[in-house]
């Protein structure tokens, strides 16, 4: 029997038969794979729903927070726009400016003076008319008339530190200014400033200006001043910037009828930590009525820095801030602040010990930074104590200074 060669058709049939089960097997595997993946996909979809829900919750919370923040920002912006706040203590760098003459005496009138910031000079880098106006306003003047830079006051000026630089102001209000305590200056760049106008006036019931020791309605830029937070420090400070020596008294009320009520209320919340205007803050918005308007009586004469009237409040304290034991050395305090050694001598020491109740006077005094942070955190509240005898009535002093705590007086009184 002859062998027959397989024909091509037979090969094709066998090949198809072999492939068909394989393809069926692949299809079955794919079905199983799909079945396996379906639960995972469902789980993923479920997880996605949870994530979406969480995201929606988070987005709602975030949106609520953003709305609240925007609301707060809007309130702050509105307040800053409506309230012209010269709140100097709220700033990182406090605006404690003074103008002094070549001997270091405070200038009250509208004369040129060396501009000091915390006892040091101010460099002219970045300084402009806005800066000049803003600083004059913090000192109680209406605006600046002139400024220049230079080394004009010799060694008195050159031995002072340079305390402020890059005073850049976007408007004529100190709240718009920025500055730095670091500098790259020399004393030839120190600012000398002339301020003019006080903004304050005293008016009588007919609208005329009050002169002499007479009571008047206190006005600021034509409007009245509300009595909120007003005290004798405020009264003294305002009388001094108007050229008087001090305030005699003040009160509030609606006393001048339409002459008073037709005016706007231009100033409120006058807070003064001491009796000089550059220690004061105020607002030009208010929550007052005209029966709260301030009436002021000023004492004529040249403004004085200090004098013998009354007995000052001296104390001696130890390193803990407690009253020093009798006969022991202590840090000398005046009104809670330290006393600088400029012009201090044994007459001053004897006079102060007698005020403290030591009739035999002082044993010795010295200066120094001896009591660490208890000492350095205090203000320096007295300087230039000059006594012509050992009685306090012969002494004069200043309540501003150009000192550091290394010049604080430590005093020992005789028991």
The Rg value, from CA coordinates, equals 39 Å
Q: What's the story with the biggest beta sheet?
A: 7 strands, mixed
Distance between the termini: 153 Å
Give the count of helical stretches: 7
In terms of quaternary structure, the protein is: single chain
Amount of helix: 25-40%
Given helix and strand content, the structural type is alpha+beta
Q: What's the overall average pLDDT, rounded? A: 78
| Helix and strand element order | HEEEHEHEEEEEEHEHEEEEEEHEHEEE
Strand content: 25-35%
- Coarse shape: globular
Unreliable stretches, pLDDT < 50, 5 or more residues?
Answer: 29-64, 66-94, 305-310
Number of strands: 21
Plain-language structure description:
It is a single chain. With 415 residues, the chain is an alpha+beta fold. 29% of the residues lie in helices and 27% in strands. The chain is built from seven helices and 21 strands. The strands form three sheets. Strands 1, 2, 3, 4, 5, 6 and 7 form a seven-stranded mixed beta sheet that branches. Strands 8, 9, 10, 11, 12, 13 and 14 form a seven-stranded mixed beta sheet that branches. Strands 15, 16, 17, 18, 19, 20 and 21 form a seven-stranded mixed beta sheet that branches. β12 and β13 form a beta hairpin. It is globular and about 65 Å long. The chain starts with 7 loop residues before the first helix and ends with a strand. About 17% of the residues have low confidence.
């Amino acid at each position: 029997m002859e062998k027959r060669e397989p024909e091509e058709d037979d090969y094709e049939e066998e090949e198809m038969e072999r492939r068909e089960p394989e393809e069926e097997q692949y299809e079955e595997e794919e079905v199983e794979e799909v079945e396996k993946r379906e639960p995972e996909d469902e789980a993923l979809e479920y997880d996605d729903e949870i994530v979406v829900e969480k995201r929606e919750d988070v987005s709602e919370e975030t949106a609520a927070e953003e709305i609240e923040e925007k609301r707060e920002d809007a309130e702050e912006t509105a307040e800053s726009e409506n309230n012209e706040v010269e709140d100097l203590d709220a700033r990182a760098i406090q605006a404690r400016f003074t103008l002094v003459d070549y001997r270091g005496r405070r200038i009250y009138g509208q004369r040129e003076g060396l501009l000091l910031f915390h006892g040091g000079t101010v460099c002219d880098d970045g300084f402009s008319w806005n800066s000049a106006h803003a600083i004059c306003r913090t000192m109680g003047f209406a605006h600046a008339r002139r400024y220049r830079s230079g080394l004009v006051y010799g060694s008195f000026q050159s031995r002072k530190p340079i305390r402020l630089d890059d005073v850049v102001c976007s408007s004529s209000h100190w709240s718009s200014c920025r500055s730095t305590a670091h500098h790259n200056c020399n004393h030839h760049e120190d600012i000398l400033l002339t301020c003019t106008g006080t903004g304050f006036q005293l008016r009588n019931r007919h609208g005329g200006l009050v002169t002499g020791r007479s009571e008047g309605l206190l006005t600021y830029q034509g409007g009245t001043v509300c009595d909120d937070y007003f005290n004798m420090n405020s009264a003294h400070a305002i009388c001094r910037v108007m050229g008087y020596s001090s305030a005699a008294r003040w009160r509030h009320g609606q006393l001048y009828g339409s002459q008073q009520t037709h005016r706007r209320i231009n100033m409120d919340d006058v807070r003064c930590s001491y009796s000089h205007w550059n220690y004061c803050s105020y607002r030009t918005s208010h929550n007052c009525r005209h029966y709260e308007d301030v009436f002021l009586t000023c004492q004529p004469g040249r403004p004085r820095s200090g004098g013998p009237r009354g007995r000052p409040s001296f104390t001696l304290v130890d390193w803990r801030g407690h009253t020093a034991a009798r006969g022991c050395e202590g840090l000398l305090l005046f009104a809670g602040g330290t006393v600088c050694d400029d012009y201090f001598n044994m007459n001053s020491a004897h006079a102060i010990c007698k005020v403290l109740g030591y009739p035999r006077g002082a044993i010795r005094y010295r200066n120094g930074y001896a009591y660490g942070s208890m000492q350095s955190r205090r203000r320096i509240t007295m300087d230039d104590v000059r006594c012509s005898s050992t009685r306090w009535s012969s002494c004069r002093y200043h309540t501003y200074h150009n000192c550091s705590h290394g010049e604080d007086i430590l005093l020992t009184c005789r028991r």
